[in-house]
Structure formats: structure tokens, C-alpha cells
Write a structure and sequence with these properties.
Keywords: Chaperone. Pfam families: UreD. This is Urease accessory protein. One of its GO terms (molecular function) is nickel cation binding. It comes from Rudaeicoccus suwonensis. The protein has 2 helices and 17 strands. A hairpin with a 2-residue loop joins strand 3 and strand 4. The protein is 7% helix and 52% strand. The chain has 240 residues and is mostly beta strands. The chain starts with a strand and ends with a helix. The strands form 2 sheets. Strands 3, 4, 6, 7, 9, 10, 12, 15, 16 and 17 form a 10-stranded mixed beta sheet that branches. The protein has a 7-stranded mixed beta sheet with strand order 2-1-5-8-11-13-14. The chain has one domain.
């Protein structure tokens, strides 16, 4: 299979008549409309082929207009396969306008032995906007140690920094003190634009309104973030 570079785009805005308009573009992922109800849309992301292979570059660009609530779901997890000496890239770009809402339930990214992945998220949330993101990474399939992974996250709220994080999870770095220890699954829940009520002592409170919850486990089903996701999602939907 030949590596590919392509952009998946989703733009959700209200027309001058107050109707929801969706402009969708397919790349290595294809957006499929599941439901539209007033100013709320639910969209599923479906892989159009085997992804990620060495040399692939996935780009996802999302714009949520003012007053829109966009629910985004991955249909299945993503496996980064042995890269045969080539890196794979995944770039997410998110723009949430004033009073827009994005809820993205991302399924796990599994980094197989021999994979070398660089992934980034850049999100700009305007005043009154809200972002809720679930992100799970598994280093290796069953019986594997997993490949190399570097994750960069930059989120602003009202044009001011909310969170900036760089995770370098190359195989040598994972064994350093205070990194992962015996764990190979990183499960993260990120909220920006409001302060969730269901906070735990281990959660991080952001510089702007928001919080980050993270669990390290040996297997994904041991994470307790499912309940937290439901709780934070209810708060998101119940916003004033």
C-alpha cells in the first residue's frame, strides 16, 4: 500500500435563515452524517482504508460555528502499523466559534511495534465556546511493546493559552522515572470552556476554564473515565 496525505474537513454553521449547514470533505477519513436536529449535528468518522501505514499523513480540520453543537464520533479505533522506517502523521485542527460546542469521542489509537507516529491537536475556542474530547492511546497490541509516539496539544480559550502539552513516548523515554512505568494505555478527558463539577483530586485545572483528567492503565478496559465522560457530557448538554 502506498502512503497517502489527505484532509478530512467538517464545517458546521447556521445560514442566514437559521438552518444548519454542513460542508464535508473526505480524506483518509470520511465524515458521515448520523443525525441533524435543529442546531445539533452528529457525525461519524469512518476510515476509507487501512490507516495508519508508514508515510501516511492524516489531517482533520473542524470548524464549529456560533450556536452549533457538533457531536463527533469515531466508528472504530485506529492502528498505526509497522512503518518500515517511515513516520506517520496525524494533525487535528479545531476552530470553535462563540457559543459553539464540540464533543468528540475519539476511539483508541494503537501504536504497533515498529510504528513511528507524530500527532498534534491545535484548537482555538472562542468566548462562550466549549470543547469536550476523549482521547485514548495504547502502546502496542497484545503482547507488543509498541512503537514510538509523540503527541503535541495546544488549546486556547478566548485567544489565551488554556493548555500546552508535549508527550514524548519513544521507547527509551517510557522507561524513565515518572513517565509510564508498567502502563501502556493513556486515557485522557479534556474539557475547555467550563469547569466540570465532577472533578477528582488527580485532575488538572486549566489556566482558562476547563480541566484535564488522565488515567494510566495496563489495559484500556481498566480505565474509569467512561463514567466521567458521561458526567461531563451531561454537563455539556445541560449548559445554560
Amino acid at each position: 500500500m502506498q502512503p497517502a496525505t489527505a484532509t478530512t474537513s467538517i464545517v458546521a454553521r447556521l445560514t442566514t435563515a437559521g438552518e444548519l449547514r454542513l460542508d464535508l470533505g473526505s480524506g483518509l477519513l470520511s465524515p458521515r452524517v448520523v443525525r441533524v436536529d435543529g442546531a445539533t449535528a452528529e457525525i461519524a468518522l469512518v476510515a476509507t482504508g487501512a490507516t495508519l501505514i508508514g508515510g501516511d499523513e492524516v489531517q482533520v480540520a473542524i470548524t464549529v460555528g456560533s450556536g452549533i453543537q457538533l457531536v463527533l464520533r469515531d466508528i472504530a479505533g485506529t492502528v498505526a502499523y509497522h512503518g518500515r522506517g517511515r513516520k506517520s502523521f496525524w494533525h487535528n485542527s479545531v476552530q470553535i466559534e462563540d457559543d459553539g460546542i464540540l464533543s468528540w469521542d475519539a476511539k483508541p489509537l494503537v501504536v504497533s511495534d515498529g510504528a513511528d507516529v507524530e500527532r498534534s491537536l491545535v484548537a482555538h475556542v472562542a468566548t462562550g465556546g466549549r470543547l469536550l474530547l476523549r482521547d485514548t492511546v495504547a502502546l502496542g497490541r497484545t503482547g507488543e511493546l509498541g512503537g514510538d509516539l509523540r503527541c503535541s496539544t495546544t488549546v486556547t480559550y478566548d485567544d489565551r493559552p488554556a493548555i500546552r502539552e508535549d508527550l514524548h513516548l519513544d521507547r527509551p523515554a517510557r522507561g524513565y522515572p515518572g513517565v509510564l512505568g508498567p502502563h501502556r494505555v493513556i486515557d485522557t478527558l479534556l474539557a475547555v470552556g467550563w469547569q466540570p463539577q465532577d472533578l477528582q483530586p488527580t485532575d488538572f485545572v486549566l489556566a482558562r476554564p476547563g480541566a484535564l483528567a488522565r488515567v494510566l492503565t495496563e489495559v484500556a478496559h481498566e480505565s474509569d473515565l467512561d463514567q466521567r465522560w458521561r458526567s461531563w457530557s451531561q454537563e455539556l448538554r445541560g449548559r445554560p
